[in-house]
């Protein structure tokens, strides 16, 4: 380069149409030819001159490429510097403009912050539920939860529950899976005596640890030798949160013992932080699954190892590299069918492959993405969509404000264009201002998500360990994407307007011009806000109606007054007489408690556990079989205790004891199924088989809800507990006031009756029922929150548009008042304009809500997705808000001074 100063000058001066490559080549050729001419003038022959010139220049092609690369890099640096200079100038200009309009900037940032914050908080929840794999999981794209499908009475049932023997069969027969793991989760007692409490314990095969790339925070994990069947070791790995809360993170915890279930376990390790296996919530500890099978998971079935009837664990599988999910599903299905063949060989006559049609499914490892989504998961996904609508409303609101700001600056923009500023540069400035507001809004949104996210998570998914929102990379990226989209959407209208503005018209425009045609964009944005607000409010209203319907639903028992008490003897063996004596002592102790109004023994608990059997109704022309009936036991006064009405006949009494005539009280549904159009009192009811002894029906009770709030009633037979050999069961205690506030005191009082080491689990029945109504309450709560937020944004948006319109029409208002217009006429004129816009938005929103109702219907309880009361209520609410938002600026316009208004330019 130093030998060719002309070339350097050319490289700096060449800005014409020629490319850099062509310019460099021409310049090198010129210097080469000039060197040859000088050499020939010195007496060299043409050939010698060419060779000497080539020697001096070296590899011309390589020199040309090097010079081209240098010049391209220089040009690129200049372009970047030019872009950065323009961007810095636009950014400073935007910051200066916002500094002089702090109210405007604050409102825009808060509006976008609310929209982005709501979306970031909801995304964090939905991401955890439906998209984010478990922490530390190896090859999540190849890991599956295995679901099992089979036909029962002509219907296919799909679920993840499996038997231990089935798990062993799959592991032995499958050819496409490189690793299996068995996992289960149950509540086991930790501690002893009054201090004993049930905690969630994870039971895992030793292979579970190889499914994760996790190192213990302390100690080690249990091995395959310790998970051997039989002879499992009593070892336990603590979860990180339990280690911190119960042992204060002490390093000397290894080797200590703790009581789990009915055995003493030795602590061998601590799982790493955030490790929760395949669960959302972290168990308190992990034990070998073979030990769990003996110590509390299947204590009623000692032959669980070889049984195909006891389903209590889940199976996870990681397919081999290169194997597709479909191939794994086919292979698992084949292995599952072989397992069923072994089952049929062990128990001939129970069925056939053609009848059961078993198949396995390699499903998502995330339990919320099961083949059949739970209601909570569906509601959470809906709420993410609802949050997106809130963000769109916020963008429309901000777009309206930016558009109004652009109208107010139209003269300034026209002057700048007249002075030579390109429209592209003006668009760039507006875009920078919009994106700056979006970035500030995203920052505010993350703060809102950090605070409001805790409330959302505690409502939607309690007991889940969460990362700090500001430290969650996925949430931060999502918030950034929301900010980018919001900035582009909000800035789109003023950018389009700036690109189409008429410079001459803007230069001579007065303050009263520019409202008519240009306000159509703002009006359209306002209609969009109103329509989307209607959609959210309709959803809120429908869920509120569902919750109200659920709350007023007659369950057939007094859930708010009942406590479910379940004694745990912890390995203490009692014979039949001792068991009866223990339950009698517990009931006597409960009756002596002044807070207790009644007590009874039970075996069936609504929405928790039921015992089914076949029942046969005698006394008709032929014996009628009542399939899938539910058995419940009760002590004398059972129905008075639980609050179920006796329709005909009597309650269970003290005379219904062992050795007396066998009796039963049946539900109205069993009476209808067994003796249609007849009085069942005095009829004969048989259990299990039509040859079993007869039970005389002595009463008919109202139907109750056992496991499905909206399903058909169950056929139930209530049997005196003294006439049933039930060596298990629990108690219902009826309190004199609200059960929740008295549960712990009653539990402690009855705890003293149990043998040493035993404990009592006490749960208000309302808590047992809560999951059944959870999705309706979640939908109602969150739809109302987001709906109110959308309503507020729409109201403020309407107010801003009407207020700006009034400002633009100050001259017109002055003329009207000067010509004799009354205050009421001016107010009516402005209010009518605002309400007319909202009416259009309401009509569109109601139409959209009606069209989308069939998607929302499955999440509602006995509520029409097109409920006329909800639709009418939302429409009236929006119109009321429109009246209020329009009346304030209209009132101000009606009192304008005509003289002042007429002087407005």
Tell me the helix content: 40-55%
Largest sheet: 12 strands, mixed
- Domain unit count: 4
So what's the overall shape? globular
Q: How many helix segments?
A: 25
Q: Round the Cα radius of gyration to an integer and report it.
A: 39 Å
Look at the structure and give the mean pLDDT: 83
Termini gap: 65 Å
Poorly predicted regions: 1-18, 297-301, 511-518
DSSP strand count? 23
Strand content is 15-25%
> What structural category do the secondary elements indicate?
alpha+beta
Please give a structural write-up.
This protein has about 900 residues and is of the alpha+beta class. The protein folds into four domains: about 5-85, no CATH class; about 140-365, no CATH class; about 375-550 and about 770-900, no CATH class; about 560-755, no CATH class. Helix content is about 50%, strand content about 15%. The chain is built from 25 helices and 23 strands. The strands form three sheets. Strands 1, 2, 3, 4, 5, 6, 7, 8, 9, 10, 11 and 12 form a twelve-stranded mixed sheet that branches. A six-stranded mixed beta barrel has the order 15-16-21-18-20-19. A hairpin with a 2-residue loop joins β1 and β2 (about 155-160). α6 (about 165-175) crosses α9 (about 325-345). The longest helix is centred in the C-terminal third of the chain and has 44 residues, at about 765-810. The model is unreliable at about 1-20, about 295-300 and about 510-520 (pLDDT under 50).
